[in-house]
Design goal:
- The chain contains 13 helices and ten strands.
- By secondary structure, it is of the alpha+beta class.
- It has a six-stranded mixed β-barrel with strand order 2-3-8-5-7-6.
- Strand 2 and strand 3 form a beta hairpin.
Length: 409
């Protein structure tokens, strides 16, 4: 491969990786846009324990009521204790909220307006932390249930301003005091999901008094989650008789959860449960679609770098295999050289022994004398030397006898 092709491949891979990084940043950003999905983080605070936020939505023809919520609340502490969770000694271990939706006509100083009425109970504004422009929120602990919160659009329609704390609006001729004014979410997901009507927030009991058909549409809880899906399973089983649809908000934007969208792609678009989701849940579902689309882009953009990585890995394996083979041969050569050196050293030692043996062999005739002396010192007669001595003496006698005979003659 020439240098120009390599540069092009590197540049394409760098560009694709940059685009993948941008997509991942957008995924992270989208996952943190909706504060209505962050109640578990808000409630956990600095705690190291794992918390989960679970929402349960009820069908139109099987809405829950306050009694069902109270019965469920009574079982939470025991369920957590049985699961091994230590309850807080100060403050609450868990928090929850519930809401219902209706339609009302609200009259202010300037005009009247149709509005979406959301009846709230529990710690609703922890789960939906709207920006407070003026005044304060309302809560379940409020003694007086005639206080309401207006969104910014309704406040401007009715009064032409946003500083309305203590002012009065009327619904069906009944006065209600404005506790505060909030600004709803302005992100693109919430704007897509919202119906467009201005909103008034009031106590659930107040909305139920205005409309006897009011029932709880949504129940939300932030609680410890000692094991995965503990909180979701607990909520789902508790409201199973009401056919509630439980959603775990805490992990809904993880890759595992988003992959479920593709698994249930066809059935996800079908409404078979009779549930009408509130706008904040629809906004969350729109967010899931955007994130799922970005994951698709990440996969598509990652195909070419992945192929290049595989090719590079194969080449690296081949190179490493060749190096290992070469190293193997070098080790064998070194091993053979070691044995060759050992064989040479053994041969050298053998030659030295042979040379020493030949030297000792030359000096061998002197050994019988030393052996004879050692034998005499030990009182023994050396056999070999005796035999030699006997032969010499016989020869000497024969010579002397011959000499004597010669002199006589």
């Amino acid at each position: 491969m020439n240098k120009v092709k390599k540069i092009i491949i590197y540049a394409v891979n760098a560009l694709l990786l940059i685009l993948i990084g941008i997509c991942l940043i957008k995924i992270h950003s989208y996952g943190n846009v909706l504060l209505s999905q962050k109640a578990a983080d808000f409630w956990a605070g600095d705690s190291d324990a794992r918390f989960a936020q679970v929402s349960c939505f009820f069908p139109v023809d099987a809405k829950a009521d306050v009694n069902a919520v109270s019965a469920f609340r009574a079982t939470i502490d025991k369920k957590l204790t049985d699961a091994g969770t230590t309850l807080k000694t100060e403050g609450e271990t868990w928090t929850d909220a519930y809401s219902a939706e209706g339609k009302v006509t609200v009259t202010g100083e300037r005009t009247s307006s149709e509005a979406t009425a959301i009846g709230v109970g529990g710690n609703f504004f922890l789960f939906h932390p709207y920006t407070l422009i003026s005044g304060s929120y309302i809560g379940e602990d409020d003694i007086m249930k005639d206080r309401v919160v207006l969104d910014y659009e309704l406040a401007w329609k009715l009064f032409g301003g946003a500083s309305l704390e203590g002012m009065t609006v009327t619904i069906d001729g009944v006065p209600y005091y404005v506790a505060g004014v909030v600004r709803r979410e302005t992100d693109k997901f919430s704007l897509k999901a919202f119906s467009g009507q201005p909103v008034i927030y009031m106590a659930y009991s107040t909305l139920a008094a205005l409309d006897e058909n009011t029932g709880i549409d949504c129940y939300e809880i932030a609680m410890p989650d000692p094991i995965s899906n503990f909180a979701k399973t607990f909520v789902q089983d508790s409201f199973k008789s009401a056919n509630g649809v439980a959603v775990e908000n805490s992990t809904r934007y993880s890759f595992t959860s988003i992959s479920g969208i593709f698994k249930n792609f066809g059935s996800r678009s079908m409404a078979t449960t009779g549930v009408i989701y509130p706008y904040w849940e629809n906004a969350a579902r729109v967010t899931e679609v955007y994130i799922a689309r970005l994951y698709v882009f990440v996969v598509l953009l990652g195909i070419f770098p992945f192929i290049c990585l595989v090719v590079l890995a194969v080449l690296a394996v081949k190179w490493l295999t060749a190096k290992l083979k070469l190293l193997k041969f070098e080790l064998w050569d070194a091993w053979d050289d070691r044995y060759a050196r050992e064989a040479a050293w053994k041969e050298h030692r053998r030659q030295r022994r042979l040379k020493g043996d030949s030297t000792r062999a030359k000096a061998q005739p002197r050994k019988p004398k030393r052996a004879a002396r050692r034998a005499k010192s030990n009182g023994q007669e050396p056999k070999v030397e005796n035999e030699l001595n006997i032969d010499v003496e016989s020869i000497v006698r024969e010579i002397m006898s011959e000499m004597e005979n010669a002199e006589i003659n």
